[in-house]
Amino acid sequence: RRGGGSAPARSYDKLLNGLLADGFDKESCYSRYQSAMYRRNAGRKPSVYLVTKLRQQEALQNRCGPGTVAYSNALEQLKSGKISGIGSQECKYLVSISYQGVGNRILATASAFMYALLTNRVLLIDPSNEMDELFCEPFPNTTWLLPPEFPLTSYTNFSQDTVQSYSNMLRNKVLMKADVDDVPAAQLPVFTYIHLHHDATQDDNLFFCDEDQRLLRNIPWLVMRTDSYIVPGLFLDTGFREELTRLFPELDTVFHHLGRYLFHPSNHVWGLITRYYDAYLASAQQRVGIQVRVFGSESNSPALLEQITMCTQKRGLLPELHTEVEKSIVRAASQKSKAVLVTSLKSWYPEKLKSMYWEHAVATGEAAVSVNQPSHEEFQHYGAKSHDTKAWAEIYLLSLTDTLVTTAWSTFGYVAQGLGGIRPWVLYKPENNSVVPDPPCGQDFSLDPCFHQPPFYDCRLKHWAGTGKIVPQVKHCIDRAWGLKLV
Ligand code: GDP
């Protein structure tokens, strides 16, 4: 147990019920085996089947990853542009492009990993945007970072117009669906690009259909661009549904487990997390995380501040305040303490909350409230090193709280809720920025993140449809009416 003065040491399971493999060198990544020590919420249990599948994936990453003969052969094939006999079916690869903010990148990587697990592909991630510095390696004895000599030199610029995109290949008849199961491997392209950026067209989204997955199955190299959490879309594919249900009997834990498996803060980030936690959060009896995501150039909003106080006080997350001058001041024998962790680009919100709890007594008279903010970077920057490091540390700190309040639409908040295993109170998006929504917030019904730009096409019926109604396990999100999430 952390903090709490003389409290007895709590035993903790550093391997998270078998989710993590044993035997990594601990100095290269302290967070991997120390994280359980910092989590009061031990989280949900992974299924035995998921644990088995993860060990198999680790073996696959070892057998086919960078530095192996299989990898050299696969690179040769990619360079030649043709599928040849050697090792063509033994090892297949998925390269995930890393772009956008830290939250988006984490969700995209977890989605790519889920797809790799379902299709027996080796996952390699684009190391740009600090992906190589923010996280430790997740697989033992190999690397998940795509090595620099990758022959598709401009892959990070792939877009909707790339001729090798799956939808363009279909349109140009480089790929034909007619005889999907009979296409000889030699006639398939050696790679295709999967465009699932938020401007993906209906044709790009055919990726989520069974028939298209059968065609993609034998293509050795896939390069994928997404900034979303696409797993709810994968569940719409009947070919993946049974396996997903077997891997995750509790479906809303997909990101919870994959996130805890994949994303271990690097030693530098872990230093930021643990020093902050020990100084400001460890000794409190209760920790409340509040994520105030300020988008674009929004100015400080009194309505948003009111939304936060209404939500936290009416839902009993923070104590209500006395409005009159105190009549008596008594020091309770056992003072309760709440540490509030506010993450935001702006300092105005935590400063206001801090003053509120200093200038007024709390109505219940027994809770001391401290308000803390690790950083206030003022504006969002892309690709700035210390900025991303702090963002990742703050996401992780939020995940260590007991109760969480998040902002609608934010992947930063989704990652915190998933890692923490917390169903957060979501601050609804106001229709008008100067009016507080009523109610101000609602508790999410699932731990899993929201897929912001899902397909609106029913593959079976072959027409546009409300994909939120195809199966009961995939519902519309609490914070985004057209988004989809697993329940
Ligand atoms: P989203 O845009 O809310 O979905 O979250 P992302 O993490 O993908 O992108 C937002 C980026 O803005 C983050 O990665 C940070 O770089 C920055 N950012 C936004 N809010 C915060 C915050 O509270 N703290 C810090 N340190 N950075 C933030």
From TrEMBL:
Q: Tell where it localizes.
A: Golgi apparatus, Golgi stack membrane
Report the GO terms under cellular component.
Answer: Golgi cisterna membrane
Q: What is its main location?
A: Golgi
Q: Which UniProt keywords apply?
A: Cell wall biogenesis/degradation, Glycoprotein, Glycosyltransferase, Golgi apparatus, Membrane, Transferase, Transmembrane, Transmembrane helix
Recorded topology in the membrane: Single-pass type II membrane protein
Entries under InterPro entries matching the protein: XG_FTase (IPR004938)
Query: What Enzyme Commission number(s) does the record list for this chain?
Result: 2.4.1.-
Question: Example GO molecular function term?
Answer: galactoside 2-alpha-L-fucosyltransferase activity
Q: Which GO terms describe its biological process?
A: cell wall biogenesis; cell wall organization; xyloglucan biosynthetic process
UniProt entry tagged with the keyword rRNA-binding? no
Family note = Belongs to the glycosyltransferase 37 family.
Query: In UniProt terms, what function does this protein have?
Result: May be involved in cell wall biosynthesis.
Identification of the protein by name: Fucosyltransferase
